[in-house]
Amino acid sequence: MRRTGFVDAVDALGGHDHIGWIFDDPADYHEVVDRFLADGRVAGQRVLSLRHDEPDGPIDPAELVRFWADATERALADGYTGLRVAADATRLVATPEGRAAFGRFEFMIDSYMVRHQLSGLCGFNRAELGDAAAAELAGMHPLAQPTATPFLLFATAEPGVAAVLAGEIDPAGHEQLRAALRWSELEPVGGAVTIDARELGFIDHRALMQLVGHVRGRGAATVLRVDRHSAVPRLADLLELRDLRVVVS
């Protein structure tokens, strides 16, 4: 079982956990990495720490996923319980093109992590990237600090469910939502994109319309799974969005 949501520390993370860690001081980040990797050693994982410097250009998301999948299989073949990687990716996301490619990679690698023995800490220097870019990147993880991003969009192993959406989305988060939806490339199943929104505390009407409109553009209807305390069913009724179905569970 992987952990999801907002956390203040990286301690006691498991073999499938994936956290976006925003930092302002590299020294603080290095301390976090040391704790994250130390737990991996105790768990019998192979551990790696990386820092990307000057990239030639945006990454190839699919190629990078294949690289880490192969590295995970090698770790298991060598007798480790899995692979744990901490990477400062700040330089890879310094441009809009770099962020778009890496944002796509984050969702793809998370889809792999949720099913395989790979765990990761992705570090992003907010002092270099700015608040908005840092929030966008942190939000593509199942785990992040509460001060890093207002919401999370991440993968799930549940059959037929395209993604999980958690946190809160108000007008300040509309641009971030647009980026997250574009990067995740949610795949329809049976003519619908199903999103687990049971941990979504709030979404305003424009963000809901934006979400449904994005999925409509992929030729599909939207199915939102929410908990019984959610205000989304009432909001959906008011908006009368014909291609949105809300399921309370």
Question: Your description of this structure?
Answer:
The protein is an alpha/beta fold and 249 residues long. The protein has 2 domains: 1-148, P-loop containing nucleotide triphosphate hydrolases (Rossmann fold), CATH 3.40.50; 150-249, 2-Layer Sandwich (Transcription Regulator spoIIAA). The chain has helices at residues 26-42, 61-77, 96-113, 126-129, 131-138, 174-184, 205-217, 232-239, and strands at residues 5-6, 18-23, 46-51, 83-88, 118-125, 143-144, 151-154, 163-169, 192-203, 221-226, 244-248. The chain has a 6-stranded parallel β-sheet, sandwiched between helices. The protein has a 5-stranded mixed β-sheet with strand order 7-8-9-10-11. The chain is globular and about 55 Å long.
Tell me what the CATH architecture of the largest domain is: 3-Layer(aba) Sandwich
Question: What count of helical segments does DSSP give?
Answer: 8
CATH topology of the largest domain: Rossmann fold
In order across it, which strands form the biggest sheet?
1-6-2-5-4-3
Task: Return residue spans where pLDDT drops below 50 for at least 5 consecutive residues.
Answer: none
Beta-strand proportion: 25-35%
Number of domains: 2
Helix fraction by DSSP (H/I, runs of at least 4): 25-40%
Distance between the termini: 20 Å
Sheet with the most strands, sense and barrel status: 6 strands, parallel
The tally of strands reads: 11
Q: Any idea what the radius of gyration is?
A: 18 Å
Q: Note the run of SSEs as H and E.
A: EEHEHEHEHHEEEHEHEHE
Name of the CATH homologous superfamily of the largest domain: P-loop containing nucleotide triphosphate hydrolases
Mean pLDDT: 96
Q: Give the overall shape, derived from the CA principal axes.
A: globular
Tell me the name of the CATH class of the largest domain: Alpha Beta
Query: Structural class of the secondary structure composition?
Result: alpha/beta
